[in-house]
TrEMBL record:
Gene3D superfamilies (UniProt xref): AhpD-like (1.20.1290.10)
Ranges in a coiled coil: none
Keywords of this entry: Oxidoreductase, Peroxidase
One example GO MF annotation: peroxiredoxin activity
Domain Carboxymuconolactone decarboxylase-like: 27-96
The name this protein goes by in its record: AhpD family alkylhydroperoxidase
Superkingdom of origin: Bacteria
Amino acid sequence: MEPRFDLMTNGLGAKIGKRFAAVSLLIQGSTLPRDLQELLMLRASQINGCGFCVDVHTKEATVAGEAAVRLHLVAAWRESTVFTEAERAALALTEESTRLADAHQGVSDETWARVREHYDDDQVAALIYLVAMINAANRLGVIPRKQGGSYEPGMFADLSS
């Protein structure tokens, strides 16, 4: 599978990419724990089949100190003992939000109630935007066939400037 297009070498693509990255930096700066953010982005990327995003979020989580066992088990978080109840609530929200076309009701009331038990209003706002942004980022990787394997941690650090 060959890549189709490089958005970052296109003038308009690069300009839009910088704005996109700026929103992501705001989310990163929220009180939502950074390790949780990486796990959620990894899970959505797995569901969406974005190899590049799986590469990015696995490597960034590793650099941030995330345990390998948690990275290996995030795809099977329901059948694992290594995630807290708060993380499980956020993972459920991420999956239900990512799979909107598969669920006629969208995010269930049960999942929403569990999220509200564990996260304050600012964290909920960050969660919602994080899921929306990673799903958009996954499409930006899948449509032009951006392949995984080449990402180096921190390589997008200057993208938003």
